Amino acid sequence: MDSIVLLQLFLAHLLTDFVLQPTKWVEHKRTHKAASVYFYIHVVLSGVLSVLFLQRLELWYIGVVVAITHFVIDWWKLEQGVDNLKYFLLDQLFHILVVLVCWLFIIDGFDVVLKKVVTVFSTLKILAVMIGYIAVVFPVGFLVGKATSSWQKEIKEVVHLPSLKKAGRYIGIFERILVLTFILSNNFSAIGFLIAAKSILRFTDKGESNARKQTEYVLIGTLMSFSITILIGMLIRQFVF
């Protein structure tokens, strides 16, 4: 029953923000902000749907809370004047937090959640896994960057091809997250698949020194990143699992 309440509130949010909000409404809101009539329709809809999906009219005040907080969050986002990934994620994070707080209030689950949080940070396995993911995302990336810095300078001097900003960094982060996940879930064969997919960055047959240097640099960074992540994953498995 408790999980159903959470899903009902999430469904109401998803329908309000993504299904029942036409592009026309979004554009009108961006242009007119708080003066947009669609803005208020959208806000009211968020509260109404929440109560409808809960199917408990005595919880009408939950709809009011959802609507008011939805207004504040969306108004804040519109006032930023920027529609990018950062503000989209913050907007959704705030909405999700409201949903979670409303859910905990309805089921009277604040004490239970507090106990679970204390348990999480007192469990060896969970702490080890958390440390592992944080390590492969941040320190390992820093280490690989420092270890390949001399080659990176050389590549910049000889290669002038356009590249996406920080693309290599994000590719490395996602690769390490996937590798660690495969190791912890005992899917070692999937690591081979990931390496095979990476093999499209092969040495050129034309013998161009610039292309060869760039390929060598990418392969060195990839293998170093994979090796350290595999080592971290195996250590976690050895001492925790």
What features would you describe in this structure?
Helix 1 runs antiparallel to helix 5, helix 8 (139-147) runs antiparallel to helix 12 and helix 10 runs antiparallel to helix 11. The chain is mainly α and 241 residues long. 19% of the residues are buried. It has helices at residues 2-19, 23-32, 37-54, 60-80, 85-107, 110-120, 124-137, 139-147, 149-158, 167-184, 188-198, 209-239.
Throw out a few tags for this protein:
single chain, mainly alpha, 12 helices, 241 residues
How confident overall, as mean pLDDT? Answer: 87
Uncertain residue ranges: 203-207
The outline comes out as: extended
Helix content: over 70%
List the total number of helices: 12
- Cα separation of the termini: 32 Å
Order of helices and strands: HHHHHHHHHHHH
Major beta-sheet overview: none
Strand content: under 5%
**What Rg, in angstroms, do the CA atoms define?**
24 Å
The strand count comes to 0
Topology of this structure?
Layout: H1 2-19, H2 23-32, H3 37-54, H4 60-80, H5 85-107, H6 110-120, H7 124-137, H8 139-147, H9 149-158, H10 167-184, H11 188-198, H12 209-239
